[in-house]
Amino acid sequence: MNELFYPTIDLFIYDLRSPLNASADEITQNYQAFLTRLPSGLDFKNTEIETEYLELTTPTRIKLKPVDLRLEGYYYPVLLNDTYGLQIDCSVNNLTEPQSIDSFSSIATEIAKAAASKALTIGRTWTVSGWLTAAHPDPERIAIDCYQALFTTKETPEIRGKGTFLDAQIFEVWGSPSVASDRVLIILFPDRSTLEKAAEFYTDWIGLFCYSHKISWAYHQSRALKESLIYHYKKVEDNASKIQNSQNINVKLVDLQVLFNDVKKILNAYTSDLLNLSFQKQIININLVNYRNRLEQIKTKAVQSNDLEFLDRFGDLAEKKYLAQIDKDTENMQLGLKLLETNISALRSQIEIEKSERDLNFQNLVTLIGAGTAISTLFDYDGKKCKAVFSVSKEPEVPHICNNFWFGSVVMPIGTILLLGGVMLSLKCLWVEIKGRKIRPKD
Predict the structure, then answer these.
(1) What is the pLDDT of residue 267?
(2) Is the Cβ–Cβ distance between 42 and 86 less than 8 Å?
(3) In sequence order, which residues have a C-beta less than 8 Å from that of residue 360 and are 6 or more positions away?
């Protein structure tokens, strides 16, 4: 059975204090949620001012009280600009005897109790460490055993990166942790003195891991935003198709207006998501600079032999993949926005034309009914309309001309129809001209 001296787990957890556009109430809720990770009754600093690095409690390290009395540890909460950071350290309280690697399982159980709240987590990094026994076993094999004990699994993880730090062997191990945003680093020191020297780097690791998790989190947010933008685009296209085919499917005019209003709301959501996508790029840019600067500080501080190239590769990944992908997505989605705006302008004209045509059809119907009514008077055999026109008193004397069948029953009605028809035609032409001016698209 492989063994290590002083097996230790440090879990670094990062929670957003003030997300994008967070209200004062939301910031307070995030603060209260972060407090649930810590023991009660602490002297806790809750500043409203963002600062690069602030230790949040007095004393700065709060003693961990594990159920397993063989263990010891502490909490170390800090504020890193807009993000809460928390280091939870737990180890076997024995510096003289080697311990079974299986002890990492018990340590992980204690840390899991301390880190029960997960509501705000944007990322977690596990560092598993200890110093090797004199037997000098295969460090990579031990790293795999440590991972399997940590997550209580028989799965053989993938060694994604390895190097040296203070003459220690350091491995980045990937597998299937319970939280997708988890990272695992396993550091195997050659002796006790090197392990103790490494404790001076905890504040550097807190910053480095924070920057890397914010980069990964922002990229993950950008993927969700891209899916949302695609959904909005398709929704606009669906509604546009319904409007364009409104005559074929007999859509009511009021329903057309509802569809058009939905399109405008979706366009607003599309624009908001597009701006948020650009914001995620800025988050990655800022944290990438901070990540690279902090990594250089670690290398400079570690005067002993070190090879942290695998950590450099993460910065290259962020620059060459994450940023490049967001740039491409932003370019495509901005083009999509222009197309949607053009489409909406066309739909607005479509609806106005549709409304105009339906009004025109209604006017034609009114004209037809009026004509039919007038025609029904054509055969006025008794000359009643003529007599009514020429009546001038309560007891009028009917003009003799109305007794003439052709004048009273034919000429007089037809003349009246032609006169009224001319008036109605003039009014109709005026109506069409007015409507035509209203529906002309405005720039």
Answers:
(1) 85
(2) no
(3) 432, 435
CATH fold, domain 214-351, is Glutathione S-transferase Yfyf (Class Pi); Chain A, domain 2 (1.20.1050)
Residue 150, both tokens? 């940590």
Give the model confidence (pLDDT) of 294-334 as tens digits.
Answer: 999 999 998 766 899 999 999 999 999 999 999 999 999 98
Which token pair is 307? Answer: 């090879």
Distance CA 405, CA 379 (A): 10
Query: Dihedrals φ, ψ of 107, to 5°?
Result: -65, -45
Instruction: Check: CB of residue 204 under 8 Å from CB of residue 298.
Output: yes
Query: Could you give the CA distance from residue 189 to residue 196 in angstroms, rounded to a whole number?
Result: 10
pLDDT tens for residues 48-79? 777 889 999 989 999 999 989 999 999 999 99
Cis peptide before 59 (omega within 30 of 0): yes
What is the Cα 432 distance to its own chain's centre? Answer: 48
Q: Strand 83-92 and strand 3-16: pairing?
A: antiparallel
pLDDT number for residue 292: 96
Predicted pLDDT at 268: 87
Residues with pLDDT less than 50, the chain: 177-180, 360, 362-366, 368-376, 378-379, 381, 392-395, 398, 439-443
- Pairing of the two strands 182-189 and 121-132: parallel
Give me the helix-helix angle, 253-301 and 324-375, nearest 10°: 170
Alpha-carbon gap, residue 159 to 172, rounded angstroms: 6
| β-strand partners of 189 | 131
Domain boundaries, the chain: 3-190, 214-351, 377-439
Q: Nearest 5°: phi and psi at 90? A: -150, 135
Spell out the residues 6+ positions from residue 409 whose beta carbon is closer than 8 angstroms to its own.
379, 380, 381, 382, 383, 386
Asked whether the beta carbons of 168 and 194 are under 8 A apart, the reply is yes
Determine if the pTM surpasses 0.85: no
Instruction: Tell which phi-psi region holds residue 375, choosing left (phi > 0), alpha (psi between -120 and 50) or beta.
Output: alpha
pLDDT at 393 (0 to 100): 45
